[in-house]
Structure formats: C-alpha cells, structure tokens
C-alpha cells in the first residue's frame, strides 16, 4: 500500500450496515477491553491510579444520562500522552470498568491509517474497535477528523494523542487537531487530560516489540480543562478558524504539561514509598 493511502473508508452510512456494525463493534470492543483488563491485572502488571475516581464518576454520570435521555448531550474528549503503541487500550484497562463498556461508554480514537487500515482484516478490527483512520500530513481538514467531530456532536467520547506520535522524553508542540475538535463542537465538551507512565516498559519501543510482564503502569487523571473563557475570547475577537484552533491548542498544551509535572511528581513519591514492593 502506498504511503498516505487508506484501504477503504470503514464506516458505512447505510442502515443495514449500521446494524451489522453495532453487533460486530460491541463484540470487538469487549474483546479489546478484555485483553486490556487482563494485561493490567496482577500478577501480569501492577497498576497505580491517581485521581481515577473523578474519571469514573464522569463515566457513571454519562451512563445515567443515557439511561434517562437515551443519549449523552455533552461530548467528552480525553487527551492522553503517547508512550507506546499499547497506550490505548491499556489505559482504559487501568481506568475503566466492565459496566462502562457494557453500557456503551467506549471511546472513539483517531489512529494512523498507514499502520492500522492497510488491509480488510485490519480495517474490520480497528473500525469495530472504534478507531478512526487519519492520514498523516493531510492536516486538520480530513475525513477522519470530520468523523470525530460528528461523533462529538452526537454527545460521544473521543480520545486523542495530541502529541501526534510516540514521545517519551521531549516536550512537543501539540497538534492543532485537538483545537479543531473543540472549536467545532456544538456543545462545549468535557476535556479531561490523562498522563500515563510505564507503558513503554510494558511494550518497549524497540525490536522485537515483545510485551513485558511484572511492570508497573500508572495513570494520572487531571482536572477538567476550562475552555469557556478561551472560546468567548475567540468569539469576541472574531478570530478566524486557524487562530481559534491555535488559541485553544495553546491553552490545552499549557494545562497538559502541568498535568505531566503533577503525574511525575506524584508517581515519584509513590515509588519512593513502595521500593520494597514487587
């Protein structure tokens, strides 16, 4: 397959195919979540959660709203740092509960089409696992980003890696795609930053890419990022779409790096207190 070429767009708009996709999608999502839960369970992996209750309460409230109204009215965006190819779904094995998935609270996530949608089998598995193909180099205006915005405007949950690629040490500028997702939501979304640690120990970023057991992974859930004032400023100043995306992304970036510092600091304290624990 040539670079930047998609096998085929995986999400059908026909009613018949939508019904088929709901069934196969639920099965694949349960399979993916089962594997994530298994790998993040002891003794395979030790997990540490910081502020996880706030995230779980948010998901529980979304479930209650769905049961009451039939759908969610407020979109959810989670932004997660990217340490390893296994970050997602492992982070949800750490943070989410079985009833969240059974209740349909499973994220959509943009992924690299050149790796995940190169043939019919990959396309079937990743699309039913709620992965959305995006093509690197095409910018923020492309079908995968449009699709994620549509899902957000349906009140659904989209998770993204705003760094755009695996990044362990460097402080990188975030991609403007997150700015477009927020700017074009009909309703201001909940934006939750999450910082993960230790994922690259579970699946190292070097050959032969063999998953490791008896590692420690951590997930730190930050406070919701407040964007109302930022969006009001963009409107009052009549900023064009590009300037609006940059303004939003800059705000997200500032808060995201604060969460990184908090996560590393708190995890260091935990490690110092648990040095003798294996």
H-E string: HEHEHHEHHEHEHEHEHH
Based on helices, strands and strand pairing, what is the structural class? alpha/beta
Specify Rg, calculated over alpha carbons. Answer: 19 Å
Q: What percentage of amino acids are in beta strands?
A: 5-15%
Mean pLDDT, all residues: 92
Could you estimate the helical fraction of the residues in percent? 40-55%
What can you tell me about this protein's structure?
The chain is α/β, with parallel strands linked by helices and 278 residues long. Helices cover 48% and strands 14% of the residues. It contains eleven helices and seven strands. The chain has a five-stranded mixed beta sheet, sandwiched between helices.
Provide tags for this entry.
single chain; 278 residues; 48% helix; alpha/beta; 5-stranded mixed sheet; two-stranded parallel ribbon
Offer a quick outline of the entry.
The chain contains eleven helices and seven strands.
Element layout with pairings:
Blueprint: H1 15-39, E1 45-50, H2 52-69, E2 76-80, H3 87-95, H4 98-102, E3 109-112, H5 113-116, H6 120-128, E4 131-134, H7 143-153, E5 157-160, H8 177-183, E6 190-197, H9 199-202, E7 215-221, H10 228-236, H11 241-273
Parallel strand pairs: 1-7, 2-5, 2-6, 3-4
Antiparallel strand pairs: 6-7
């Amino acid at each position: 397959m040539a670079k930047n070429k998609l096998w085929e767009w995986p999400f059908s708009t026909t009613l018949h195919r939508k019904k088929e996709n709901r069934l196969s999608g639920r099965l694949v999502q349960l399979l993916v979540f089962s594997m994530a839960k298994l790998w993040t369970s002891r003794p395979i992996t030790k997990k540490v959660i910081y502020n996880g209750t706030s995230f779980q309460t948010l998901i529980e409230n979304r479930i209650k709203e769905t049961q009451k109204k039939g759908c969610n009215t407020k979109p959810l965006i989670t932004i997660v740092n990217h340490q390893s190819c296994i970050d997602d779904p492992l982070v949800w094995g750490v943070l989410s509960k079985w009833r969240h998935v059974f209740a349909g609270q499973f994220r959509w996530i943009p992924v690299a089409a050149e790796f995940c949608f190169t043939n019919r089998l990959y396309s079937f598995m990743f699309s039913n696992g709620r992965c959305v193909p995006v093509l690197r180099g095409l910018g923020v205006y492309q079908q995968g980003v449009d699709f994620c915005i549509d899902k957000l405007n349906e009140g659904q949950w989209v998770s993204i890696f705003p760094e755009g690629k695996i990044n362990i040490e460097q402080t990188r500028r975030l991609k403007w795609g997150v700015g477009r997702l927020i700017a074009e939501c009909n309703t201001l979304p909940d934006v939750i930053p999450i910082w993960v640690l230790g994922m690259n120990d579970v699946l190292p970023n070097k050959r032969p890419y063999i998953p490791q057991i008896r590692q420690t992974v951590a997930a730190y859930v930050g406070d919701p990022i407040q964007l109302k004032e930022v969006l009001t400023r963009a409107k009052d100043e009549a900023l064009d779409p590009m300037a609006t995306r940059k303004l939003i992304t800059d705000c997200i970036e500032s808060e995201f790096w604060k969460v990184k510092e908090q996560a590393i600091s708190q995890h260091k304290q935990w490690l110092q207190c648990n040095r003798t624990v294996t």
